[in-house]
């Protein structure tokens, strides 16, 4: 269930969000009894601290939540959410300490701290509920939370229950909820419809590969989102070790993220023509699996030498990107859990992206800072183009040497987009250890930054 605000009602508890450097000034405006209570309980405004302040009858008359110091706020997102677990049961109204965009971001963090993936196990609900603070657009924040919840739930669902069929069903459900349409090309139809690399990657699996094509909106600029939908990745004949397979249910994190972004766009009623393309496959092992050394001919006509069957994501994305480019939308944006090299470069918390457009890069970076959804620009470094050009085909899906793996993957994808502005995200889509508003598990990356930047990325 998507996180929502609580209803404002009698008994709503005023909440003061207080930083360590603001506590003394705040106490000057309070009764002496409040000051004694605060000091007696050791409340300093440290990040994660929470304190209930009782009235004469013992019932809480207010609550305090620590925001930490300036360094805490620079290092950590959703500092208010760190205090939510320490608050007692009830509905809370943030009445001081946060304003503007910071208040909206912290409201989003609070809502996401209440989200639980409970499909397979009952979870204890968060007792502290948030009412809509004055000045906050409740519908917008709830829409963002619902979008992120969708992304997380899709990623967290194991591959047995989130294969190509189920990913298609999730897309159909989303389209139906907002009046969109879906067309699917499946199995052997992929060959006759000229998606040979999607077919080659997915043909070894028991569940048929497919290209999912969702459309929504009748007017405005055209935006096409392409999400990698590898529902499980064994590595194919270049089989992964067991330790590397443990998180491969998340290899459809790009698809989950673009579906969450699409939900936000549709839920906010943005004036654009949206298209979502998801090549949904399993990279499996069987007698029909593609082999190292095979040369595939892509939808675009470029030939690709398969030098590692575990570099399959760029193959399925290439066919989908070629289709997207044929329509020449104003913007094509791809999201994929594509390379381990990106994790080595920037770690799990940053979402690296590639674009040739400096204005687009600036818009994304500034939007990311605004909404606390960090991204980092990486280079389409032209001198590395020769690394993806083998002797026997136009392109190599896995250049030897191991250098610049995320960059060469991005350069590979760029070969399939020629008519449109293009941005590619190489995301991790996983929170490796719990953090406020971000439990261990699937997570969206970059979607809120993209949403914030869209007015600058698309023509009016």
From TrEMBL:
Keyword set includes Signal: no
PROSITE patterns: CYTOSOL_AP (PS00631)
Matching CDD domains: Peptidase_M17
One Pfam family from the record: Peptidase_M17
Residue ranges constituting the Cytosol aminopeptidase domain according to the UniProt record: 308-315
Gene Ontology MF terms: manganese ion binding; metalloaminopeptidase activity
GO cellular component: cytoplasm
Keywords: Aminopeptidase, Hydrolase, Manganese, Protease
Alphabetical list of SUPFAM superfamilies matching this protein: Macro domain-like (SSF52949), Zn-dependent exopeptidases (SSF53187)
Matches recorded under InterPro entries: Leucine_aapep/pepB, Macro_dom-like, Peptidase_M17_C, Peptidase_M17_N_1
GO aspect biological process, one term: proteolysis
Family: Belongs to the peptidase M17 family.
Protein's name in the database: Leucyl aminopeptidase
The species this protein was found in: Jhaorihella thermophila
